[in-house]
């Protein structure tokens, strides 16, 4: 009986939705216009926050937490992951090659270009995916996307790009535009029993608190990854952050580096174009 | 501390939590099996839509646990609730198919 | 092992390196009601770390009670970013500081950390502590044989929307 | 194994400011792991800093000190280029020492 009641109320709401003037989603996605609107929204919402400071997430919006953060930054907890990453980056694989051979410019100072759209494959390639592909191409076992080894590598690569503006490209290729749009869809779609989308927290309520934590603005949210979270007392890759965000809204997470997550990272990174890379970061 | 409010969706989810239990007739294993199968089918559909809920999974597991302990009343109730949760997650996926565009920053 | 005879035989314990501590009679020992179990020796204060409440821990560590003093500047966050990493630091203008300790009143064991401040070391310490829940952080400074304290409450709760 | 101690000691001629970060779990013994068993207590108990054989700072720590512990203090009487010896011992008896140069 309860289930039928539910469906009736749902259908009523759906009917109502149709009468609302249908969203004027342009047919072909226009990333540049989206990015401009996205940025203007946050700059208008937080006029006092300097544009490049948005990459510091909650610390750009809360004074008390910023002080705690600045104090920690003197000797940050991600120091060990950074040094481990540097060492791993230099240690050759069994076949003598190193990560430097897989990446442009030897992997130094290139994090800001990831994720990029691979025209040959027709798919978005993120830094974490590229690192594991490099390992497999050189006969090494891939790392888990949510564990420390991957976080150390991406921490080091992010560190070598600190300060460089995020530079994500969406080529005028229908597949790239589709991937971008898929990421946008994921970002704004409500999920989980708590019925939140990424936007519910990071667009609608940045600066507000969920208990002890202050919500980070979506603008520049990718720039600080990977992050050392006091909550995990350990490093967190982009994949680990997306998986935990899902489970917090009681949605069953997808596999790390699945299409939706990579497209989401593609969309969100594009929104932060021009903002400096500040990874690896320390967060509550 | 402002609690995040998000309209009728929240009440929809809350209503589901207070799923009523079955009338007094003792549930048999067959009742449970049927309800469990229905719940699993709904959950499979939610999985196809990439929109499962962790609470559905937990309730399914609880149903199976009660069943193995022989408590079919509890197992049946849990299976019913799991089905309702799975159906709600399916409804969420379908209703959000277009509605997400309303939230996009323009 | 060079001995530090350059140090004036002041009223505090003369500190040696890893060697046995030579407890030289304190000038005004007679004045102190209790023998000065100054924390300024090298032995790990096992017993003090076992005490539950901050009062018992202070007594076990120093053998006497402290009086609040605004000369002890305790710097703690109003709301801890995360209970497992709470930056806490203390500095003081008091002279002749020999020991600084931190207590978290409602942790399973109140004493969190205790520092020996030898001659020539400045009386300020910063560290990161764990806090079980919202409660008082107490900093104790032992200056010229007397104890001074500062107390502040730190709010601690978990983060996230509890998925 | 690289040292677990990271130190930054900077002298301005008169006062040397020392910051140390140590890689250590600092387990309290009260936390359960994923399988539900208690993770045994494993924390640094004593950390000493020595300059020219003289202890300039000594820390007695309990399990309430944060994971990967950090401490900052300053002391007088050292000059650029001097050595600063850092050593810790934990409740299992494990130790690590390191010699740092004062910048």
Structural features, described:
- The complex is a heterotetramer of chains A (284), B (106), C (163) and D (103).
- Chain A has two domains: 27-66 and 170-283, Cytochrome c-like domain (Cytochrome Bc1 Complex, Chain D, domain 2); 79-159, Cytochrome c-like domain (Cytochrome Bc1 Complex, Chain D, domain 2).
- Chain A is 43% helix and 7% strand.
- Chain A has helices at residues 2-19, 31-45, 63-73, 79-90, 127-137, 148-159, 174-188, 198-202, 238-248, 259-271; strands at 116-118, 123-125, 209-210, 213-214, 227-229, 234-236, 281-283.
- Chain B has helices at residues 7-17, 29-48, 54-68, 72-103.
- In chain B, 74% of the residues lie in helices and 0% in strands.
- Chain B has one domain (26-103).
- Chain C is mainly β.
- In chain C, the strands form two sheets. In chain C, strands 1-8-7-4-5 form a five-stranded mixed sheet.
- The model of chain C is unreliable at 1-7 and 9-40 (pLDDT under 50).
- Chains in contact: A-B, A-C, A-D, C-D.
- Chains A and B meet through helix 1, helix 2, helix 7, helix 8 and strand 3 of A and helix 1, helix 3 and helix 4 of B.
- Strand 6 (124-129) of chain C pairs antiparallel with strand 5 of chain D, so a sheet runs across the interface.
Under CATH, the topology of the largest domain in chain A is which? Cytochrome Bc1 Complex, Chain D, domain 2
**Shape by Cα distribution of chain B:** elongated
What Rg of chain B do the Cα atoms give? 16 Å
Count of individual helical segments of chain A: 10
Structural domains of chain B: how many? 1
Number of strands of chain B: 0
Helix/strand structural class of chain A: mainly alpha
* Alpha carbon gyration radius of chain A: 20 Å
Low-confidence stretches of chain A: 20-25
Helix-strand string of chain B = HHHH
Regions with little confidence, pLDDT below 50 for 5+ residues of chain B: none
Approximate helicity band of chain B: over 70%
Mean pLDDT across the residues of chain A is 91
Strand order of the largest sheet of chain A: 6-5-7
Number of strands of chain A: 7
**Most extensive interface, chain pair and sizes:** A-B, 46 and 41 residues
What is the architecture of the largest domain in chain A at the second tier of CATH? Orthogonal Bundle
Gap from first CA to last CA of chain A: 45 Å
Number of domains of chain A: 2
Strand content of chain B: under 5%
